[in-house]
Amino acid sequence: HAMHVYEERIVLVNASSFEEAARKAGQEAVEYSADLDGAEFLQFVSGYIIDDDEIGDLAEIYSLMRKSELGSQEYIDRFYDTGDECQEMLPQ
């Protein structure tokens, strides 16, 4: 099997509805992936609504809750620290 690299991105979008935000984010993803050799937008957009007055230091800009039977370390290993991430590790 060939190894694929998947990039997950969070973008801030100013919109008057979730539908408008999803459309704008999708368009941005199409343009972003077009600038990368061999990249494609996988047609998946997820969103999180925040009010303008909530934007600032330590503002929550994204939240995803997932039900799982995995313990905490197994959960991190399964979804976020598989060993295949292309990132620098923070010092511990």
Question: Would you give an account of this structure?
Answer:
By secondary structure, this protein is mostly helical. The protein contains two helices and no strands. The chain has helices at residues 18-34, 72-79. 1% of the residues are buried. The model has no long low-confidence stretch (mean pLDDT 89).
Write the layout of secondary structure elements.
Blueprint: H1 18-34, H2 72-79
Helix content: 25-40%
Strand content: under 5%
Task: Specify the biggest β-sheet.
Answer: none
The count of β-strands is 0
- Radius of gyration (CA) equals 16 Å
- Count of helical regions: 2
What integer is the average pLDDT? Answer: 89
C-alpha geometry: globular
Structural class: mainly alpha
Could you write a compact summary of the structure shown?
By secondary structure, this protein is an all-alpha fold. It contains two helices and no strands. The model has no long low-confidence stretch (mean pLDDT 89).
Keywords:
92 residues; mainly alpha
